[in-house]
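User: Predict the structure for this protein chain, please.
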Amino acid sequence: MTVIQLKQVRKSYGNVEVLHGIDLEVGSGEFCVFVGPSGCGKSTLLRAIAGLDDVTSGIIEIDGEIVNGTTASERGLAMVFQSYALYPHMSVYKNMAFGLENAKLPKAEIDRIVRSTAELLQITDYLDRKPKALSGGQRQRVAIGRAIVRNPKAFLFDEPLSNLDAELRVTMRKELSALHAKIGDTMIYVTHDQVEAMTLADKIVVLQSGRIEQVGAPLDLYNYPQNAFVAGFIGSPRMNLIEATAEEGPDGWCLKAQNLSLPIHKVDSLSDGAICTFGIRPEHVQIDPGGNGDIITQVAFTEQLGGQTFLYCDVKGLPQITVHQTGQLPITKGQTLHLKFNRKDMHLFDADGQMLANGMVE
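Assistant: Here is the predicted structure, written as structure tokens:
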């Protein structure tokens, strides 16, 4: 298994800097996911690791060896692309065997490797077919199989599931997770889908504008975001984020935004009159049937999904508030709701979006 280290990696195209001094270690056997919005630099970073793009400055190490200037073919990594990149005129067997034949392995060894990999990926029945006769999920398995047979130091995945429909993406996520558990190799996976990141990763790297915003285990990022960007990006539906002003009064501290006034305990580094942003996830917003909530809202629309209900509530002058409740709720558009925010589950960020507190009390 392989350790990959990046030290102050920068990448520029002319005067445009795309990666701004990336420092990162991907540990041996980790499933590391790069996630972020379009244009954040995640695919550029992956291609730099693969050797498909040169870096402008900084160091890339694979198992302690500096590989700057080393060609992609010499780095010992295998990359799986979004487009599958299969040879259309070759059978599945030939697609998987092609690299091994170029390496001049004995025929019997090639056959053993291809067939054992096909069995692992459950594509043995398709070995004689051409790619055009396969579904999207089957083609993706072949592309992964072609990478596995090379016995690489690490696997690099560039949005491999984005061409699949929603149901098949869920299935393939399960299969990729099971595959990593079986072979245990180091994997780096790029996606813009934070659900994929949460369900697949041992470690998530959140990127924005060519910079790392936070690195950590999925639930660490979910529960303890270090800034408002991570708080809003990780989680589906996204965290409710509301700009407010901190005020100290005779009865203590509160956060004020339009007609909303939330009593809180004093937070270190929060001064009277400071502009800040507080966040709370939809599942931590409660409906108060007694009318003693923190805010009065009107339901704009509902999503009844059977086992869970999503409510989207309007308050004049504030962003729309999303509420997530388990079960089926008999709530309709236009209904008035009193909402209560669980203080222990609230997050507070300063004017620059940096974390002040993850969890507060009244």
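Helices lie at 42-50, 92-102, 107-121, 136-148, 166-183, 194-200, 218-223, 228-233.
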